[in-house]
Amino acid sequence: MAWSASTRYEVDPAPLGLALVHDLLNTIPAGRPRAADLLDDLADAQAWVDQALGCWAQEAAQAAAQVPLTENDLEELRGLRAELRRLLSSRNGDGLDGDDHDVAPAVHVAAAALRMDRNGRVVLEPRGQGWRYVAALVLLEVFQAQRSDTWRRLKICRNTRCATAFFDRSRNNSGVWHSTKICGNPENLRAHRARQRVRTAGL
Predict the structure, then answer these.
(1) Among 2, 39, 174, 182, which residue is least crowded by beta carbons within 10 Å?
(2) What is the SS3 assignment for 93?
(3) Pair type for strands 165-167 and 122-126
(4) Phi, psi dihedrals of residue 120, rounded to the nearest 5°
């Protein structure tokens, strides 16, 4: 099984359960030609949720939950995505891509329960139906990533015309482009040319 949203932008998924959060971030329309918003209509959103929960279950060695969505769930999922993207973009002072400006803020509360598994470990499990279940699972993975210090490696490409989410695997966590070839080199070339024009104008 492949993470459908991130795969279409040719980015490797974040490790373990954080890949679910990564894939949600990449349900946005981006790339050239522009890919579809996977949360735009119910059929696409349901297909993404089914695929993403199946991938997550594989990573966690658990049975995949069946989470039917309704039309009312779509705005909440888009709102959750927008809030997560806003949080990541604020790290380097970037703004949101235009599509996310029109989305209402997501509710930052989701339900989870503590349960002891067969091995005696206490585990957190998401609760709720529809978007609430997905939000609970996503926030649990953000919580786990913050505890393991991998959350800071999940980033938004600095190229505002791209805005693809990527997991920075560089040793010093210095990456700013989802792809140096696709976004980094063209942006650096544009910046170089702009500096040259300023120098020429000053002569």
Answers:
(1) 174
(2) coil
(3) unpaired
(4) 85, 10
> What are the CA-CA distances from residue 110 to residues 34, 140, 148 (Å)?
32, 9, 21
Widest pairwise Cα distance in the chain: 75
Q: What is 4-202's CATH number?
A: 1.10.3300
Quick one: tokens of 144? 């786990």
Q: 50-78, pLDDT tens digit by residue?
A: 999 999 999 988 888 999 999 999 999 99
pLDDT at 3: 95
By the 10 Å C-beta count (0-12 exposed, 13-18 middle, 19+ buried), 57 is classed as middle
Residues across the chain = 203
Ranking 66-80, 114-128, 162-176, 180-194 by mean pLDDT, the lowest is 180-194
**What is the residue-wise DSSP string for 117-185?**
-TTS-EEEEE-SSTHHHHHHHHHHHHHHHHHHT-GGGEEE-S-TTT--EEE--STTS----S-IIIIIH
pLDDT digit string, tens, across residues 169-187: 998 988 887 766 668 555 5
Please give the sequence-ordered ranges of beta strands (E in DSSP) within the chain, or none if there are none. 112-116, 122-126, 154-156, 165-167
Is 35 buried (19+), middle (13-18) or exposed (0-12) by CB count in 10 A? middle
Domain ranges of the chain: 4-202
